[in-house]
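Entry:
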Amino acid sequence: MSNLTLNQNNDHRISYEPIGAAGLTPIKAWIKGVPLDSGARQQLLNLATMPFIYSHIAVMPDAHEGRGSTIGSVIPTLGAIIPAAVGVDLGCGMMAVRTTLKSSDLPDNLRPLRNTIEKAVPVGFGKWDNLTKADPAYEAVTKAWELLAPGWKKITEKHPEVDNGRVNHHCHLGTLGTGNHFIEVCVDENGSVWLMLHSGSRGVGNRIGTYFIELAQEDMRKHMVNLPDKDLAYLEEGSDHFSEYLEAVTWAQEFALMNRVIMMEQVEHALKTVRGVPSFSRSLESINCHHNYVARETHFDTSVWVTRKGAVRAQAGDMGIIPGSMGVGSYIVCGKGNPDSFNSCSHGAGRTMSRTQAKKKISLEQHLADTEGVECRKDADIIDESPRAYKSLDDVMNAQSDLIDIQHRLKTLVCVKG
């Protein structure tokens, strides 16, 4: 199979020509000036062999190697969905709100603010162990689970294996999780304070995703389907597993959406308890968007399944959030509705190092220098999330100038990690 061949255009778009054998699906990638690792390239080549890909694969500038499929890719399909491409952090995404606070309203010492947020929102592997009516999150978590519980019951009645006794479901509502999930307090170019967070469907989404990935792989073995990668196992539309997967993944995406709303309320409440911070409210700007999900959409006059694996929908007028690594800042953007990207843009900066590589290559001194001026964790256990493990956010933004318009540039003041 041949290497990818770049065709550079004047509008910053780089489209890959059909590669390998005749009939291979074309790949269009917005990666001008941004490195794409060899593992991600091979995954794109593998994906391009699948017979149900519609039109072409779109690759975002933050693309990097994932499980089976490249993170930062947009995969339109006809008659099938690849569960591992949708992933296990179903509905993972971002939420941001602009407050009426100005940067001058915040205390000079931001450590108490970070400590307060970390106490208000369970982070890492944390969950609500003994949530009582006295807790500010009690009402929101209870009401959200009342809405979600019937769907969960329906899923687990059909697939009791999904609830393996270790799934915490409602105990994870309003909690952050681990890895690259975060909560930030930021300030924009006008001095307005923003609250921002990144999280998904937590343990319950992971369990649903993992379970259906295994079912898809079992189907492939049963029907003796040869795949370039077992994580490209797919479910065919019309099959029982397909409809049940769609039902479960839709439920998990709703869980993720509610999870972010509850956390944002907790962060707002926490900020209001910090000494010296004046009374405030949200402004009219509020964004809550997925970047790991599947949806039915119409592109080039055809109804298709669109899997955004680390990509944000950027239809004309859509508001989106593109975060950098901890301490780097983020962008609030508005979609241009570029049809070649299936109305999509990147979901962040994208990794250049695996977590293992980052821990070996990045020193604590480098991490301290790269996060100077940001109130965040400075210990060795967070090195895998240090800015040097990620691509340049500015390069990523430059590579997708035909996909989005920048509305705000946010500077990070406080970063809470799991």
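Residues 240-272 form the longest helix (33 residues).
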